[in-house]
Design a protein that fits this description.
Layout (H helix, E strand, L loop, with lengths): L16 H20 L7 H8 L3 H7 L3 H22 L16 H18 L1 H7 L9 H16 L5 H9 L4 H9 L4 H16 L1
Helix pairs in contact: 1-2, 1-4, 2-3, 4-5, 4-6, 4-7, 5-7, 5-10, 7-8
Length: 201
């Protein structure tokens, strides 16, 4: 079975009622703004104005736009992490590693789940996980541990290096480029399944 991996970024902190209200207003405003157009063009001032709070209040909780997008993404990524750890195979591990799905099948299922997440929440991913920021998120660390485990299970050398290489096709900029070129999520997932079976099969 997949080892117990830490869920991204730990449990949410406790907060006062007024802080919780402000957080909800910020996240709702940011969700609307990110979904309305290019999320990378949204500024912190835009979010503060849309939320109806002061800039100081916003910056005390969120240092930048990416941290807000990460907060919105967190619940969706946690749900996927839970399915990877304890869900039904082939995405989940099955009852035992020996009788569970092959590493290539699990990687293909992971790719399909990630394509679904990117398609549904691309405006958040583009706001939170582009460029170097992608590698600093707790979620990326989780995905990397998971894929390295599958590579190790398949007997591949240097699984830590291979994990980063296998995650590279999930970069949100690449996904957006492929979608803008007219490639459907189904075609993208099918191509990634070929990659999974080619490398770990």
């Amino acid at each position: 079975m997949t080892p117990e991996l830490p869920l991204a970024d730990g449990p949410p902190p406790r907060e006062r009622a007024d802080a919780a209200r402000n957080r909800a207003k910020v996240l709702a405003a940011a969700e609307r703004l990110f979904a309305a157009g290019d999320p990378t063009a949204v500024t912190m001032d835009d979010i503060a104005k849309a939320a109806g709070i002061g800039r100081g209040t916003l910056y005390r909780r969120y240092p930048d736009r990416a941290s807000i997008a990460r907060a919105l993404l967190d619940e969706h990524e946690r749900a996927l992490q839970e399915r990877l750890l304890r869900g039904a195979p082939p995405l989940g591990p099955g009852e035992t590693e020996e009788s569970g799905p092959a590493p290539a099948d699990r990687l293909a299922a992971f790719y399909a789940a990630m394509v679904e997440l990117l398609e549904t929440h691309s405006h958040l991913v583009l706001g939170a996980e582009t460029g170097a920021a992608r590698y600093r998120t707790g979620a990326y660390g989780f995905w990397r541990l998971h894929v390295a485990h599958l590579a190790r299970q398949a007997g591949r050398p240097d699984p830590e290096v291979l994990a980063d290489q296998l995650l590279a096709p999930l970069a949100p900029e690449l996904f957006r480029h492929q979608r803008e070129a007219g490639r459907t999520p189904e075609r993208i997932a099918a191509g990634l399944a070929v990659l999974a079976h080619g490398v770990l099969g």
